[in-house]
Specification:
33% helix; TIM Barrel; 12 helices; globular
Length: 353
Amino acid sequence: MFPDRFPGKSTPIYDVRVGHKGKPRACVTVTLSADWDGHDLRDENVGAIEHFAAWRQQHGVPMTHFVCPSYFSNGQNVAQNANQIRRGMIPGDEVAIHVHGWRSLLQQAGVLQVASFWSGSPVNNYQTPAYANAWADIGHDNPITHYTRQEITQIINRSRALLQGAGFNVSSSFRSGAWVAHRELLRGVRNAGCILDASGVPPAMTEPLNGLFTAMALNPHPLALWANNITPNSQPHVLNPIGVNLRELPCHYSLADYNTQQGIEGRMQWALGQIQHAQLDQTVYLHFGFHPETAVTLRLYQPNQPAGTVLANIPMNHLAKLEGALQTWRASGAIWGQLQFVTVEDAVQIFVP
């Protein structure tokens, strides 16, 4: 079991070594993240994220953007797509690598895409995807656990180059698409120069995907690594026990897509309870996040059709849940004064430097 608790402590709190601004205090260290999955960059969603960015800048709240380089791997609209993503950023934000198995990205990395898609059907053995992205690419639903350690390293290296080519300063943080992972994948990530993984999730958050991956008879199971090792209370730790020299900052059961505003606020109440009797130099870690493609409305596109052929528009409004929780905390001076917002790469320096 990966740690829910700091060694020698009776509660899951960690010593704060760096990262505080001003006098150290018992606090909740919070990271926010956006998983830019590569579907599209429509103004409806990006505008909502831009509005959220203005609020974050007003209140000094940084965020980590896990960006899938499939926005740039087809070579079209690179500058335009980069500018759309930047609309959701403020000074101090982090840009990190996020990988789904999009065909154009794998081709750029010199890797042959395996014909296996979790949105497919048992009839065709999941070999045909049910949807594409706005640029007629397929592979959002292609788990990257299909690929070898060397192929993962190639994909990560090419991902970094594509993001840098679009003008982003890329950190050494990584999150896999759909949180999939096994030892060889994580070793490939480490070989590509990443020092931090943020893919670990508790089983409750991945229940639908667990069933799909089981039906697909994927071996090793893409989520088995986390199933017995990550809980909603897990704290940052080193993955050395499984033979990988990576820091793990868990994703928690806190992505707005899979929670309610009340659930998000409940997680904060748990964390505040943990530090109630903590010493002045101790903190507990929480993560909250969302997907830009589901900030307001998710749009899916027809595969094997001209780019932009719409399959479905699905109202989501997931970002509003996270915004609502943050505004509730900001309105309470007693809560807001106990929170420390940092990026994922800064959080690792606090918990597992």
